[in-house]
């Protein structure tokens, strides 16, 4: 298998809204193109395709990590063709490079990462870890707000009892979840490029947290629906546009969660010469 095909397969492990995996890859020579698959957008919860773009960004970051950790240097052009808005990114192999050990840790975390909706242990996430995650998210061009304890009631109001069928990742018994930390990824705008980059930052956050032994669960209910979205904006005190929240903590239950099934790679990855 070529490095690009391997990277596309690794990217299938990326998290996505309701596990829709709304992307495809086309590999030609030393180039791989990531496209959105609009047919997999869930209109009821994602009318503008924001969550679709975040999910595709996560897949893009997974592919980048797979290639860089294997010693491949790459260039990435995001939204390279105005005439083709579904073409989200073009990754080109440019040669070999010495992998950054941090990329190895992240690559190893790709297999282990799961969305963990169980209650977390009482041990809090340290300020040191939260600062590290914030810096890492910033290095991907997005900002991270760590929700303060006094802001938790507002966040709870944003994510509670929303649309039927919504996949709320806050355990019902919040009293058993005291060690959880909540963070919100945000940025200055919500253009497609902002959302794609935010998806990359989400992946970076989830993989680094996993590599550091934390359990994670993205939470998008608060940003999917108009009124909680406004509340969340208020929580950011006008600093920016909320993209997605993430619940982080130490797993109470060390039993690994089984992997959630993925699409058949033949439906996702096309190889042309
Ligand atoms: C943008 C985005 C939003 C998500 N929102 C939620 C959410 O609100 N609630 C939830 O339980 N999981 C949420 N998830 C997690 C997905 O359900 C999960 O990634 C998918 O089912 C695959 O499972 P895995 O992450 O364990 O591989 C979200 C994931 C992404 C990428």
Give the gist of this structure.
With 273 residues, this protein is an alpha+beta fold. It folds into two domains: 3-113 and 258-272, NADH Oxidase (3-Layer(aba) Sandwich), CATH 3.40.109; 127-249, 3-Layer(aba) Sandwich (NADH Oxidase).
Describe the structure.
This protein has 273 residues and is of the alpha+beta class. It has 2 domains: 3-113 and 258-272, 3-Layer(aba) Sandwich (NADH Oxidase); 127-249, NADH Oxidase (3-Layer(aba) Sandwich). It has 9 helices and 9 strands. The protein has helices at 3-11, 50-69, 101-112, 127-139, 152-159, 192-211, 221-224, 226-235, 265-268; strands at residues 23-28, 31-36, 72-78, 87-96, 143-146, 181-187, 215-219, 241-249, 269-272. The strands form 2 sheets. The chain has a 5-stranded mixed beta sheet. A 4-stranded antiparallel beta sheet has the order 5-6-8-7, with helices on both faces. It is globular, with a radius of gyration of 18 Å. It starts with a helix and ends with a strand. The relative contact order is 0.19. The chain binds flavin mononucleotide. Residues 15-19, 51, 54-55, 58, 114-115, 117, 167, 169, 217-221, 244, 260 line the site of flavin mononucleotide. It comes from Paractinoplanes ferrugineus. InterPro entries: Nitroreductase-like (IPR000415). This is NAD(P)H nitroreductase.
């Amino acid at each position: 298998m070529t490095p690009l095909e391997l990277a596309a397969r690794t990217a299938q492990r990326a998290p996505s809204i309701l596990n829709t995996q709304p992307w495809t890859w086309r590999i030609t020579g030393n180039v791989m193109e990531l496209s959105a698959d609009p047919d997999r957008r869930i209109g009821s919860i994602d009318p503008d395709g924001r969550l679709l773009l975040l999910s595709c960004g996560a897949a893009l970051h997974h592919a980048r990590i797979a290639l860089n950790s294997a010693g491949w240097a790459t260039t990435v052009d995001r939204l390279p063709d105005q005439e083709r808005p579904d073409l989200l990114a073009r990754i080109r192999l440019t040669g070999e490079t010495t992998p950054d050990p941090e990329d190895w840790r992240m690559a190893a975390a790709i297999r282990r990462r799961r969305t963990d909706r169980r209650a977390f242990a009482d041990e809090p996430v340290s300020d040191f870890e939260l600062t590290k995650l914030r810096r890492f998210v910033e290095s991907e061009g997005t900002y991270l707000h760590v929700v303060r304890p006094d802001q938790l009631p507002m966040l709870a109001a944003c994510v509670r009892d929303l649309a039927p069928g919504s996949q709320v990742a806050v355990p019902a018994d919040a009293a058993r979840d005291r060690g959880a930390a909540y963070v919100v990824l945000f940025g200055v705008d919500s253009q497609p490029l902002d959302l794609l980059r935010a998806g990359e930052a989400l992946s970076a956050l989830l993989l680094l947290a996993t590599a550091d032994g934390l359990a994670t669960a993205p939470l998008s209910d608060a940003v999917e629906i108009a009124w909680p979205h406004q509340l969340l904006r208020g929580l950011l005190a006008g600093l920016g546009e909320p993209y997605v929240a993430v619940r982080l903590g130490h797993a109470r239950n060390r039993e690994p969660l089984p992997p959630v099934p993925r699409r058949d790679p033949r439906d996702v990855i096309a190889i042309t010469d």
